[in-house]
Design brief:
The chain is mainly α and 374 residues long. It contains 15 helices and 5 strands. Helix 1 (32-54) packs parallel to helix 11, helix 4 (98-117) packs parallel to helix 8 and helix 7 packs across helix 11. It is globular.
């Protein structure tokens, strides 16, 4: 990595923009600090992947991981939606908070649809554009050509291009640079570990900044997509946005350090620490989920004939830990009075918690489960 060069700044009249070097080339890894961190990151990812394989009903819990990722990734861009709000229906959200709520929902939909598309489509400009289109559908960036690479100059930071923190390459360079990024992600002749590859891809994507809006969110989404596509994770259970959000200034500073000082080593170290910490945190969460599952299962055993209906409700709550009596009735095919009785019993057992205080249309949280993702 000693001879790494981020790119060349070109004069565009009143400002200079960076044209990054192409990344689809040979890379030589010769730094022992990076290699040591890489070994730790691989080990923790292996442990996490094992947990995802051996956790019963793993797909039930992934939706909450995705919701948390959507909230944290969007928060980096300035939205203010918490996990409870993200789980609500649109009509339950106050008018002034709906724009933020919709951006989070779009991120959830973009990530889910992109992961599903991996079955038929590799990571590519086409897949990235599809995810971007979903991300910006009907929200604040809807006029910034969703699903299309930019056709004008953009910038990062600053009130205008004159005081920008960083100015990406001219729009005429975007297609070429994204094509190079795509080739790099699939080039099997490059003998570079996958975790360093995706660190480079994320950095390069953010540096190209191919869209007029939504680049940060798409760039972070790419990390999970890459890990799943390459088989490093069998399930999408690792999301770095929480780490990036908690270390937001370091995140920005380390990306800028590559561009200004050609210091990709520091970016690798930061990224790998993020993998290590996030994987460890996810393992703790899975441990806690399995412990909670056992405790809840023990509690509902005492419901006798209603245990099977209670279990159906609990499984739904693992997917979306918010429910109403009407939803319980629909799930179990019980009458409303019987559904209400089941909800009351789950409330009495401390599994559900009524949160609206309303006489009608009451909502109930699976509070302890939500707490695991805060």
């Amino acid at each position: 990595m000693k001879n790494f060069k981020a790119g060349s700044y070109i004069n565009q009249g009143t400002f200079k923009s960076l044209i990054p070097e192409e990344i689809n080339r040979d890379w030589v890894l010769d730094d022992m600090e990076v290699i040591a961190l890489l070994s730790q990151a691989d080990r923790q990812l292996g442990r996490l992947d094992m947990y995802s394989e051996h956790t019963p009903n793993i797909d039930l819990f992934i939706s909450m991981h995705v919701a948390k990722e959507a909230i944290k990734s969007s928060k980096i861009e300035g939205t203010k939606t918490n996990i409870e709000e993200a789980l609500q229906e649109r009509e339950e959200i106050r008018e002034e908070q709906r724009d933020d709520w919709e951006e989070v929902q779009n991120y959830i939909n973009a990530l889910n649809s992109a992961i599903k598309s991996l079955d038929e489509l590799p990571i590519s400009s086409r897949l990235i554009k599809m995810a971007h289109k979903v991300l910006l559908q009907g929200v604040r960036g809807k006029h910034k050509i969703p699903g299309q690479f930019r056709t004008s100059q953009n910038w990062i930071g600053g009130a205008s291009i004159a005081d920008a923190t960083f100015i990406p390459p001219p729009h005429q360079e975007v297609a070429r640079l994204m094509g190079d990024l795509e080739k790099f992600s699939h080039n099997t002749e490059i003998r570079l570990p996958h975790l360093l590859r995706i660190a480079i891809i994320h950095y390069q994507f953010e540096t190209i900044h191919p869209f007029l809006d939504g680049n940060g969110r798409v760039g972070r989404l790419l990390i999970t997509l890459y890990l799943v596509e390459k088989g490093i994770l069998k399930k999408p259970v690792l999301y770095l946005s929480d780490f990036f959000e908690r270390n937001r200034q370091l995140y920005y500073d380390n990306l800028m350090k590559v561009r200004s000082s050609n210091d990709i080593k520091q970016w690798f170290k930061f990224f790998l620490v993020g993998i290590i910490e996030t994987a460890k945190g996810s393992i703790v969460t899975f441990d806690s989920i399995m412990k909670l599952q056992k405790e809840v299962d023990m509690k509902i055993q005492g419901l006798g004939a209603r245990t099977s209906n209670a279990r159906a409700v609990i499984n739904q709550l693992y997917l979306r830990p918010l429910i109403t009596v009407q939803k319980v009735a629909d799930l179990t095919e019980l009458s409303l009075p019987s559904a209400y009785k089941l909800v009351s019993e789950l409330e009495h057992l401390g599994i559900l918690k009524e949160i609206t205080g309303a006489k009608r249309g009451k909502q109930y949280w699976f509070d302890e489960y939500i707490g695991l993702f805060k």
